[in-house]
Design goal:
Blueprint (H helix, E strand, L loop, with lengths): L6 H14 L4 H15 L4 E7 L4 E8 L10 E3 L3 H9 L3 E3 L21 E9 L2 E10 L7 H19 L18 E4 L1 E4 L2 E8 L14 H25 L9 H11 L2 H12 L4 H16 L5 H22 L16 E5 L4 H5 L6 E6 L7 H9 L2 E4 L4 H4 L5 E5 L4 E4 L3 H23 L14 E6 L6 H6 L4 E5 L1 H6 L6 H15 L4 E4 L26 H7 L1 H14 L4 E6 L5 H20 L7 E8 L8 H7 L2 E4 L1 H9 L6 H4 L7 H17 L3 E3 L7 H9 L4 E4 L1 H11 L4 H13 L8 H10 L7
Parallel strand pairs: 9-10, 10-11, 11-12, 15-16, 15-22, 16-17, 17-18, 18-19, 19-20, 20-21
Antiparallel strand pairs: 1-2, 1-6, 2-3, 4-5, 5-6, 7-14, 8-12, 9-13, 13-14
Helix pairs in contact: 1-2, 1-4, 5-6, 5-7, 5-9, 6-9, 7-8, 8-9, 13-25, 16-18, 17-18, 18-19, 20-23, 24-25, 24-26
The structure holds phosphoenolpyruvate and magnesium ion (MG).
The site of magnesium ion has 5 residues, from helix 21.
Length: 758
């Protein structure tokens, strides 16, 4: 029996011929099973495809009753075929009927077969079906035969994934192309409909079978050498930020790329007759199938690294030199970028006019890439498990940045529902745009100035588009965070000047560098800290390393020559910190004056109120500063001791709680008494219900993300500020331990027909 076996090379050669024949996919599959049966001298060869409903359907057979094709199905987990699908591992038995999983299907006439070899049809580690051979005699299939069958399974996997086999007679759409739904965390509001662009696209291997194995080995070795060299260059040049990666990820790459076991497995796969690309795919698919069943999060994380690395090796093989560079040009019109993780600079590399959305496997709402996504106004969802494995380049996909959902290959119903939503949102936007030039005055005549939070060049057009009263918070650190090296004074100046130009005389409040904590500059080496949020950050860093702060202040003073300059300092915790910072500004100002440089026409200095210690120094502080700005994000974080970046706790307490509202009311009252302007620039001001409450406790200036201006303005035009104040005063004073006033505020708004839910 063994002597008659043609060997894997003969099988693979024949397979290549069959793949080149101009026949339908079903016919090709029929020919493949005949070919395998003949080559392996097996009485039976069958292909089962996993369907949307989870069943395995017989798609082709040689040897079993052909009438059973598209009629026989097994549940996943049922019988030996189900076992192979479940375990994603080959099953090789000489006495199949003795196996406890054996299940008899009378319509196939299987009872006479003793030996069974089944291999999973895998793609990207996902099981798409099962390929089986059977013999009447009791025999054990050789390793070589298993290999050959696995290679054939790769070819069939490609046929399934390409959709060629979909809609066969009696068949269902196989699992590889079915609609998929995933839930993550909303990072940037909006709804994006479009087509997938994989940030690090998986290279689709089409050519599996080698013509010349020695040549394939040489190609593999060359690509491996290039890959290793490109990783070394990235690490050595410190280009970590530009690649959007962190050093430890690259170090992991370097380790895996040099791993002998990986290299050996790739070589062995080529020696079975595969092309170099197919060998990479095979080794990775096996690894993935093995590791996906791991529950250890560390190992699963390593799988991501290995996936990335395999993909980069494939890119080296298909387009040498491109191993580490994502494709950012030639985007489709409605591009939805899908990535495992991404740095903010990488997102900015894409052509903004074609971007509609972003889906990440990682990413929290306060991550830098989320900040950039919001600035670009594209829908984004993060923490979507296996997002990049769920889709193929070009797949239709919907990103719901409101609910945090992602629909891949959506059904027509879902697509229609979302198209309606998008139309509805567009109408709303139209209404908001119509309000742009309406003064933002409450029904009872109180002016509430609505300002923008900004930080990047891409934010600037929003000043005119939204009709904002100015920029209430310009986060200067964003320029530093998206750069690959420390921005020079000239670049800083240029940005600040552009901001003032875009504001066109409207006030702009620049905040000095707020780095440290979660705002990390990849090119600045910092000591690791146990509690970075409470660590060496923002003004602390600025005062301890005054050169950095001085350079920035100088750039701001230069940029604002002949115009008004408003400057504020982040994370100030004591009056003396403000005094020291002011001294630096005054010294720089005096220096410029001494050298005859043109100066800002006015200079106002302020402080962010975001560390609770300041609450008890407000009287003294307000005498010294020109204005204050409440950073409710950090104030909430520090007052309630909840990490704003930790999804597990960040929503635990409601900013609309009496405790927090009392704190905010206290700050507003102090500022009013001192006759100093106060703005609130944290996220809570961006939500209409919260904005209404803030108006009720005395705020008349709110600064928010561009998309929030319209909804907040629409609500405040309908609000009677005095009525809200009167309604809220007793609620805030309440001492019954209520956790939140949200329901009461909602009822209040609903009774007056206020549009306060976005
Ligand atoms: C805040 O803390 O509320 C704030 C506006 O600043 P950031 O979000 O940049 O820390
Ligand atoms: Mg802050």
């Amino acid at each position: 029996m063994r002597g008659a076996y043609g060997g894997p090379r003969v099988l693979l050669r024949r397979l290549r011929e069959v793949m080149a024949e101009p026949v339908s996919a079903q016919e090709r599959l029929d020919r493949i099973v005949v070919l395998i049966a003949a080559n392996m001298v097996a009485e039976v060869c069958s292909v089962y495809v996993l369907r949307v409903d989870g069943d395995l359907e017989l798609y082709a057979t040689e040897g079993l009753n052909r009438e059973a094709v598209h009629r026989t199905t097994m549940h996943k987990g049922e019988g030996l075929v189900g076992l192979v699908a479940d375990e994603a591992e080959p099953v090789n038995l000489s006495d199949a009927q003795a196996h406890p999983a054996f299940s008899y299907k009378p319509e196939t006439g299987e009872e006479v077969y003793h030996s069974f070899l089944g291999v999973p049809i895998l793609r990207s580690g996902n099981t798409l079906g099962v390929l089986v051979v059977q013999n009447k005699s009791q025999r054990k299939y050789s390793d070589e035969e298993i290999e050959a069958l696995q290679t054939t399974a790769m070819v069939i996997a490609e046929m399934i994934a390409s959709g060629e086999l979909a809609g066969q007679e009696g068949g269902f759409e196989p699992v590889g192309r079915r609609p998929a739904h995933a839930r993550g965390v909303a990072l940037s509001e909006g709804i994006g409909l479009g087509h997938v662009v994989l940030h690090e696209p998986r290279v689709v291997v089409k050519n599996f079978i080698a013509e010349d194995s020695a040549a394939e080995l040489a190609r593999l070795d060359k690509a491996l050498a290039n890959l290793r060299a490109s990783i070394d260059v990235l690490i050595d040049e410190g280009e970590v930020a530009r690649a959007g990666e962190h050093r430890d990820v690259l170090e992991a790459f370097r380790m895996f790329a040099n791993d002998r076991g990986w290299g050996r497995r790739l070589h062995e796969a080529v020696l079975t007759g595969l092309t170099a690309e197919a060998a990479v795919e095979r080794v990775q698919s096996d690894t993935r199938a093995r590791m996906q069943r791991q529950t250890d999060p560390y190992l699963r994380e390593r799988l991501h690294d290995l996936d990335d690395l395999a993909n980069r090796l494939l890119r080296e093989l298909t387009s040498p030199g491109k191993g580490m560079a994502p494709q950012t040009t030639h985007l489709p019109d409605n591009a939805i970028i899908v990535a495992r993780s991404m740095g903010p600079a990488a997102l900015l590399d894409y052509d903004r006019s074609r971007l509609r959305g972003l889906v990440l496997e990682e990413g929290s709402p306060s991550s830098h890439v989320a900040i950039v996504a919001r600035a670009l106004g594209i829908a984004a969802v993060g923490q979507v498990e296996n997002a990049a494995g769920l889709v193929e380049s070009g797949d239709a996909v919907i990103v719901d940045g409101v609910s945090g959902e992602v629909h891949a290959r959506p059904t027509a119903d879902v697509e229609r529902a979302y198209a309606d939503k998008v139309r509805f949102r567009a109408r709303r936007q139209e209404q908001y745009r119509a309000l742009r030039d309406r003064p933002s005055i409450t029904r009872d005549g109180e002016t509430v100035s609505l300002m923008l939070n900004a930080g990047l060049l891409v934010d600037l057009p929003h000043i005119a588009e939204t009709g904002a009263a100015g920029v209430g918070l310009f986060r200067t650190e964003l320029q530093f965070m998206v750069a690959s090296s420390m921005p020079r004074t000239a670049a800083q100046q240029q940005l600040y000047r552009a901001v003032l130009d875009a504001a066109d005389g409207k006030p702009v409040t620049f905040r000095t560098l707020d780095v440290g904590g979660d705002k990390i500059l990849p090119y600045m080496r910092n000591e690791p800290e146990e509690n970075p949020a409470l660590g060496w950050r923002a003004i602390r860093l600025g005062l301890d390393r005054p050169a950095l702060l001085r350079t920035q202040i100088r750039a701001l003073l230069y940029a604002a020559a002949g115009r008004d300059l408003k400057l504020m300092f982040p994370m100030v915790a004591s009056i003396s910190e403000f005094d020291e910072a002011r001294e630096i500004v005054e010294r720089e100002h005096a220096r410029l004056a001494r050298h005859g440089h043109p100066l800002p026409s006015s200079l106002q200095l302020g402080v962010m109120v975001e560390v609770p210690s300041l609450l008890f120094q407000l009287d003294e502080l307000l005498q010294r500063v020109d204005f204050i700005s409440v950073g409710s994000n950090d104030l909430m974080q520090f007052l309630f001791a909840v990490d704003r970046g930790n999804a597990r706790v960040s929503g635990r307490f409601d900013p609309l709680s009496p405790a927090f509202l009392r704190t905010l009311a206290f700050v507003a009252a102090k500022a009013k008494a001192a006759g100093k302007p106060v703005t609130l620039c944290g996220e809570i001001g961006a939500r209409p219900l919260e904005a209404m409450a803030l108006i009720g406790i005395g705020y008349r200036s709110l600064s928010m993300s561009p998309a929030a201006i319209g909804p907040v303005k629409a609500a405040l035009l309908e609000v009677d500020a005095h009525e809200v104040s009167a309604f809220m005063a007793p609620l805030i004073a309440r001492t019954d331990g209520g956790r939140t006033l949200r329901p009461e505020l909602r009822d209040f708004a609903a009774a007056r027909g206020l549009q306060v839910e976005p």
